[in-house]
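Re: that chain you flagged

S.,

Sorry for the slow reply, it's been a week of failed gels. I finally had a moment to sit down with the sequence you sent. For the record, here it is as I used it:
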Amino acid sequence: MNVKIYHNPACGTSLTVMGLLRDKGIEPEVVEYLKTPPSRDDMKKLLKDMGITPREILRRKGSLFDELNLGNPDLTDDQLLDALGQNPILMERPIVVTPKGTRVCRPSDRLQELL
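Prediction finished late last night. Pasting the structure tokens below so you have them in one place:
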């Protein structure tokens, strides 16, 4: 099974999901999205595949969300995509892509939907 994970090695949930994949004998393609953020087009595709909006992928924990006023309902999807492109730490994680679909696997038991 071809699997891709948008991974942050400093994130406990991301590490758990990586471990669950490996426990199942799956060695995923790993994208450390803080080092190699998805392009705008790739992010749009991920969002489309998950059936969610840019607002729904935003990680609200941490001060950056508040500093950038990303809770402002007047911000457009394009503005939110710009913020994600400039600050990939704002992306909720981990995102796992398998032939069965694409999901944010937070909590980690959401991975089962994709295997």
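What I noticed first: Residues 50 and 102 are 5 Å apart (CA to CA).

Talk soon,
D.
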